[in-house]
From TrEMBL:
Domain of life: Bacteria
Homology family: Belongs to the KptA/TPT1 family.
SUPFAM superfamilies hit by this protein: ADP-ribosylation
Enzyme Commission number(s): 2.7.1.-
Gene3D superfamilies per the UniProt record, alphabetical: 3.20.170.30, RNA 2'-phosphotransferase, Tpt1/KptA family, N-terminal domain
Function: Removes the 2'-phosphate from RNA via an intermediate in which the phosphate is ADP-ribosylated by NAD followed by a presumed transesterification to release the RNA and generate ADP-ribose 1''-2''-cyclic phosphate (APPR>P). May function as an ADP-ribosylase.
Organism of origin: Streptomyces argenteolus
Pfam families in the record: PTS_2-RNA
Protein name in the entry: Probable RNA 2'-phosphotransferase
Alphabetically ordered keywords of this record: NAD, Transferase
Top-tier EC class: transferase
Molecular function as annotated in GO: transferase activity
Amino acid sequence: MDEKRTVKVSKYLSKHLRHRPERLGITLDPHGWVEVDELLGACARNGFTITPEELDHVVAVNDKQRFAVDAGRIRANQGHSVTVDLDLPPAAPPSYLYHGTIAQALDSIRSEGLRPMNRHHVHLSPDRATAVRVGARRGVPVVLSVDAGAMHRAGHLFHVSANGVWLTDAVPPAFLRLRE
């Protein structure tokens, strides 16, 4: 499977497993899972055929490990705008986590902090390099350090998804520092 097809399938799956399952005619269970056969059938009925081998490839090689497969079911690891409970237990974060963004967002972030926007959680990276890649998707990246240890001590909950992305409800401005 070539890289262009891999990216196209990954984006298609992300769109429908995270944001628009109804457009495919599938229903995610309360934890975001859907049967693989149901998903592949729905994709084919909607004119975007994905073979089981292609699906396995995308799940295995996706650089962000966006998807999980278990017992014949698949789900997105995080990033949903539809209501799902990923059933992730609270976890103690490392002292610092990172968030990649762009300069145009800084004024809002400085005044309001990080908010989940149209998702359920704010996504934080475990290292600066990952945050740079995340921020670069929308332009020249800016990396913010999040004092996750202090947030945790102040009572903020954190969860870590299967692919290592840290999730929290919001990050108040007091816990943010611009990384130059």
